[in-house]
């Protein structure tokens, strides 16, 4: 019997050898070059089995399609890594040593890939792995090709979801492995970019017991934050979510978000686990649907069930598609690399060397690596395109765990944000709005969006610290009930706080006030000390007239202010300027007054120069001429000038000047009207530095930070005085710095800034609603009366109401241009007319100047007068011949002459005089008349 078994074994060995030889001979005859490739998978889990089927099908499909035109063929050598890091590293060494593989597909886990990648780097063998951990970078490991997406690519859609619902705090829970820790920094940065803080980080060991998981969950229940982001592999996540359901944290108010690794493998989880996760949100890579994908899915199901009959329920996911596309890309790259028979180059001496060193390095590796990186095609998972050695992913699906599986509620794309339907165009830019998602079932089967924060069940109320001070009760006042000793807080700040918390917030937050005082009822410190109590954990919030300062912001968060910010300086008001007898001079500054006077005189002078030789009204004794210069120009101020202008140049000058006067008078009237009708409150001090320079006393409210401010401004503390009431303010300012009072009081404007982590944005929005709704104005009137608002004076930017010359520079430039132009034209004409005098060589310069002055002073017959006299001469010289010979003016006929033109019916006499003589006679007659 034993011999029969040995004979059977020998026959089978011979058959196997013959088959191998036959295949080798067939490949040799067809010219195919065999390229050995290693495949390292965890075949003890369903993902490894799925990937193995996909990879073998990828090579079958590829070579069936390219059997005739390809010269290479991949020969796979598969080794089970048994979900162990050492086994994976051992498998890689075995493949390199015994089979001299030119590339390795896998492993899929990041912890395993970390070791295998180092081996590939030393042997120049490309490692194509779907490990998603961001800690594994192709830039640091040149022979590492990421055949899946980088885990950090999902942080943007995760942050977009958190932003869409307005959650300001999250808790990150991850498994304590390289895979789990790798995504943490990326998630934290992404949340911070949208204004959301990672309040806590919980690292969960993969070997954690159920009791340890319960202990951690009970700690999480005490937190106010209710938004949790979970990054775990299915093995740990299954136990974790069962305990979440058990402790009651999968209920109203909670938000659970899972990363892609768990969402992708959701259908591999037990039905009981999926039921415990109802209401969870998640993201997963988007895979475009295609006929090729549908056909492959059907073929894969048949083959997978045939190879794994013991697995009842499991569907193909994107991990299998990435494995299929990676194998296809490798087959393409092997063919395109154009290498001959692949071989390893071993070191010269292998004595006393390790197995890894003895293996040597692949001569084909560098060329194959470059060919893989350049490979680009449309795969089953989408476009296979490597950028910096890793597959790119730009679109994600957003899903909601409901019932026995998941429901798609929307998509996220890097270019456009969130959208309901991938088939519709993204018509909004960078959309991150919850309205762009389908209806969501939240934990507890609720449809109301959780606010993401709550007061822990059974915990104390919100502890609100309030300052204890005397004097300014309108802002805040703290008393105790005489019988119950309960704290009674009132005032403007408290009223606003109650309006926000009790009526405006969309949810109830119980609170109670705690006065910041000593056992004997005195203030326990200043406002800095009060704010610091939040940092120490004594209070959850502080309400009062607390100003936002840089040093305080280091310890607490502030809400939106509901009154104006910063620090105010209270000073005395100067007397009203309307009582000044010379107020009519204030509308214009002195430089403008002087400029106007100069232009008045200059305009009168230019008009006199232009009219003096041709206009009798501008002639006469010197005193009259000087008077006309001043009279004419200043009379234009009220448009009372009556002198008739003859020169066109002077008319042009006056037109421009009248326009200038009109603008100046209108501006003066408007400014003076404003000064006389509008009350002006002028502060006596506008700059705090003036107080220090003059050695004045400065007051401040007792107990505030302003004492420190005065120190920073280098005031002498003996020059500072503190006060507690408005009455003391008034008395100190009235007496003044020299009479025991102060010149100014530095006062902190009122604020209420509850600090409460996730409460901050909600309270800020509520404050804004109170301000816009008009309720804040009512509260102000309630505590400060109808005249609650006061005018502020910005001393650093105080400007004068008087008009300056700068405002009229253009106007005066136009006037000056017209005046100078007219003067130049007139002077040029005069010099041209007297060119003979100027050209005379017989006279000295002085004589020429005297002659020119006389010529200028002589009256010139202008065109208007010449025309007038010519008409009069015609009346004398041209007369009807049949008129009476009486020398009357009406018929203009003289007895001595008879002007007759033989052709026209007129006659002339031989004794006719010249026309000019006749004109003189007529003028004499007119004078007698």
TrEMBL record:
Topological category with respect to the lipid bilayer: Multi-pass membrane protein
Does the record carry Ubl conjugation as a key word? no
Per the database record, which ranges form the Ionotropic glutamate receptor C-terminal domain? Answer: 461-786
Q: Which InterPro entries match?
A: ANF_lig-bd_rcpt (IPR001828), GABAb_receptor_plant_PBP1 (IPR044440), Ionotropic_Glu_rcpt (IPR015683), Iontro_rcpt_C (IPR001320), Iontropic_Glu_rcpt_pln (IPR017103), Peripla_BP_I (IPR028082)
- Subcellular locations according to the entry: Membrane
Residues passing through the membrane, by range:
592-610, 652-670, 810-832
State the signal peptide span: 1-17
Swiss-Prot/TrEMBL keywords: Glycoprotein, Ion channel, Ion transport, Ligand-gated ion channel, Membrane, Receptor, Signal, Transmembrane, Transmembrane helix, Transport
- Origin, by domain of life? Eukaryota
Entry GO CC: membrane
| Gene3D superfamilies for this protein | 1.10.287.70, 3.40.50.2300, Periplasmic binding protein-like II
Query: Which SUPFAM superfamilies did the record assign?
Result: Periplasmic binding protein-like I (SSF53822), Periplasmic binding protein-like II (SSF53850)
| Subunit record text | May form heteromers.
Q: What does this protein do?
A: Glutamate-gated receptor that probably acts as a non-selective cation channel. May be involved in light-signal transduction and calcium homeostasis via the regulation of calcium influx into cells.
Q: What is this protein called?
A: Glutamate receptor
Species annotation = Rhododendron griersonianum
Q: What is the lineage of its organism?
A: Eukaryota, Viridiplantae, Streptophyta, Embryophyta, Tracheophyta
């Amino acid at each position: 019997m034993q011999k029969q078994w040995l004979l059977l074994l020998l026959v089978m060995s011979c058959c196997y050898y013959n088959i191998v030889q036959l295949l080798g001979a067939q490949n040799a005859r067809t010219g195919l070059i065999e390229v050995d490739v290693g495949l390292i998978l965890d075949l003890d889990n369903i993902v490894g089995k799925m990937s193995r089927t996909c990879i073998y099908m990828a090579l079958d499909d590829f070579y069936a399609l390219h059997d005739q035109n390809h010269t290479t063929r991949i020969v796979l050598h598969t080794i089970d890594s048994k979900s162990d890091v050492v086994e994976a590293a051992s498998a890689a060494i075995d493949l390199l040593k015994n089979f001299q593989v030119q590339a390795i597909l896998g492993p899929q886990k990041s912890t395993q890939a970390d070791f295998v990648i180092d081996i590939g780097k030393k042997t120049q063998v490309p490692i194509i792995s779907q490990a998603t951990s961001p800690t594994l970078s192709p830039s640091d490991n040149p022979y590492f090709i990421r055949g899946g997406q980088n885990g950090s690519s999902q942080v943007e859609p995760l942050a977009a979801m958190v932003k869409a619902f307005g959650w300001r705090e999250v808790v990150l829970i991850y498994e304590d492995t390289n895979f789990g820790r790798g995504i943490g920094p990326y998630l934290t940065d992404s949340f911070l970019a949208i204004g959301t803080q990672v309040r806590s980080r919980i690292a969960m060991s993969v070997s954690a017991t159920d009791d340890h998981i319960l202990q951690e969950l009970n700690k999480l229940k005490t937190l106010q934050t209710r938004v949790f982001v979970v990054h775990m592999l299915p093995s740990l996540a299954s136990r974790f979510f069962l305990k979440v359901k058990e402790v009651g944290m999968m209920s109203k108010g909670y938000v659970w978000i899972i990363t892609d690794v768990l969402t992708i493998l959701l259908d591999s989880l037990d039905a009981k686990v999926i039921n415990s996760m109802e209401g969870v949100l998640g993201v997963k890579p988007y895979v475009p649907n295609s006929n090729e994908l549908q056909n492959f899915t059907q073929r894969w199901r048949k083959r997978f069930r045939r190879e794994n009959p013991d697995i009842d329920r499991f569907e193909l996911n994107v991990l299998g598609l990435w494995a299929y596309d990676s194998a296809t890309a490798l087959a393409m790259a092997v063919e395109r690399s154009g290498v001959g028979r692949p071989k390893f180059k071993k070191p010269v001496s292998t004595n006393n060397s390790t197995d890894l060193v003895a293996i040597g390095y692949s001569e084909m590796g560098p060329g194959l690596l470059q060919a893989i990186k350049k490979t680009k095609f449309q795969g089953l998972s989408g476009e296979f395109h490597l950028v910096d050695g890793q597959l790119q992913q730009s679109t994600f699906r957003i899903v909601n765990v409901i019932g026995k599986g998941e429901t798609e509620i929307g998509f996220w794309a890097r270019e456009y944000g969130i959208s309901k339907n991938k088939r519709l165009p993204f018509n909004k830019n960078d959309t991150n709005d919850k309205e762009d998602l389908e209806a969501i079932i939240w934990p507890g089967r609720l449809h109301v969006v959780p606010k993401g924060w709550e007061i822990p069940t059974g915990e104390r109320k919100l502890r609100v610290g309030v300052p204890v001070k005397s004097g300014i009760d309108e802002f805040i006042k703290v008393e105790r009930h005489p019988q119950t000793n309960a704290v009674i807080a009132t005032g403007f700040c408290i009223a606003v706080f109650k309006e926000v918390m009790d009526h405006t917030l969309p949810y109830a937050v119980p609170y109670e006030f705690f006065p910041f005082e000593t056992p004997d009822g005195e203030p326990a410190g200043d406002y800095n000390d009060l704010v610091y109590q939040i940092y120490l954990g004594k209070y959850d919030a502080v309400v009062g007239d607390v100003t936002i300062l840089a040093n305080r912001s280091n310890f607490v968060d502030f809400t939106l202010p509901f009154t104006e910010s910063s620090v105010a300086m209270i000073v005395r008001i100067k007397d009203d300027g309307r009582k000044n007898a010379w107020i009519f001079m204030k509308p214009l500054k002195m430089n403008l007054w002087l400029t106007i006077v100069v232009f008045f005189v200059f305009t009168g002078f230019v008009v006199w120069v232009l009219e003096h030789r041709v206009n009798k009204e501008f002639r006469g004794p010197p005193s009259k001429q000087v008077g006309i210069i001043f009279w004419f120009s200043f009379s234009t101020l009220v448009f009372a000038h009556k002198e008739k202008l003859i020169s066109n140049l002077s008319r042009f000058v006056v037109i421009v000047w009248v326009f200038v006067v009109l603008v100046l008078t209108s501006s003066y009237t408007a400014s003076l009207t404003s000064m006389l009708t509008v009350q002006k409150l002028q502060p006596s001090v506008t700059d705090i530095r003036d107080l220090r320079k003059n050695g004045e006393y400065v007051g401040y409210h007792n107990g505030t930070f302003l004492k420190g401010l005065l120190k920073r401004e280098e005031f002498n503390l003996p020059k500072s005085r503190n006060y507690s009431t408005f009455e003391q303010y008034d008395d100190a300012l009235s007496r003044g710095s020299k009479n025991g009072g102060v010149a100014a009081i530095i006062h902190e404007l009122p604020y209420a800034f509850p600090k409460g982590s996730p409460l901050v944005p909600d309270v800020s929005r509520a404050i804004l609603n109170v301000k816009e709704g008009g309720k804040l104005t009512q509260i102000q009137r309630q505590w400060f009366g109808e005249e609650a608002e006061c005018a502020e004076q910005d001393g650093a930017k105080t400007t004068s109401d008087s008009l300056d010359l700068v405002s009229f520079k253009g106007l005066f430039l136009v006037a000056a241009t017209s005046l100078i132009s007219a003067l130049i034209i007139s002077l040029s004409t005069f010099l041209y007319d007297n060119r003979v005098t100027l050209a005379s060589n017989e006279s000295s310069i002085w004589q020429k100047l005297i002659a020119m002055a006389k010529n200028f002073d002589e009256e010139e017959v202008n065109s208007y007068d010449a025309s007038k006299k010519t008409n009069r001469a015609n009346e004398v010289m041209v007369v009807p011949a049949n008129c009476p010979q009486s020398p009357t003016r009406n018929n203009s006929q003289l007895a001595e002459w008879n002007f007759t033109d033989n052709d026209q019916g007129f006659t002339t006499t031989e004794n006719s005089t010249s026309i000019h003589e006749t004109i003189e006679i007529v003028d004499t007659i007119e004078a007698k008349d």
